[in-house]
Amino acid sequence: MSERFDPKIVAFFCNWCTYAAADLAGVARMKYAPNLRTIRVMCSGRIDPQFVLEAFARGADGVLIGGCHPGDCHYISGNYKCLRRFKLLKRLVQDMGIEPERLRLEWISASEGDKLRQVVNEFVATLATMPPLNLPKRFVEWDKEVAILREQVDAAHAQEEQQEVSTHA
User: Fold this and answer.
1) pTM of the predicted protein model
2) Which CATH class is domain 9-133?
3) What is the 3-state secondary structure of the chain?
4) ∠ at Cα 23 (22, 29), nearest 5°?
5) Tens digit of pLDDT for each residue in 80-121?
6) pLDDT tens for residues 137-147?
């Protein structure tokens, strides 16, 4: 019998809209997957791409970004800034070998607690069909590969230096 995979999701939610929707969902006792670890930011435009990469590096299987609907940002254009960064991040994570489906952006207003519930449940279901990302374990394996390559390069350099000394002697 195989063990059930429960994906770990880090969520960056805008204080004014998506975080408020999560609060509404909780107050209304809407049931959604408990896989979410929420980080409240004042605006989705304040999410540094490094935050997302760090979440993956520390073991998140997915990252969910939630912000105000376009045109409704409390900081006027923060969500447009977020959208530009999100598009770049999607390409970057794919180039890093991470499935782009592991990164998701949703516009969820404060009154859309049910939409939040639906998005979280869908995201968990999507991630559950994939194997665990497990980047921290991959880093250990990659470090071993780099160490082997370093030894090979050092050995090649030592051999070149020895040949150079032999030809000049």
Assistant:
1) 0.84
2) alpha beta
3) CCCCCCCCEEEEEECCCHHHHHHHHHHCCCCCCCCEEEEEECCHHHCCHHHHHHHHHCCCCEEEEEECCCCCCCCCCHHHHHHHHHHHHHHHHHHCCCCHHHEEEEECCCCCHHHHHHHHHHHHHHHHCCCCCCHHHHHHHHHHHHHHHHHHHHHHHHHHHHHHHHHHC
4) 90
5) 999 999 999 999 999 999 999 999 999 999 999 999 999 999
6) 888 888 888 89
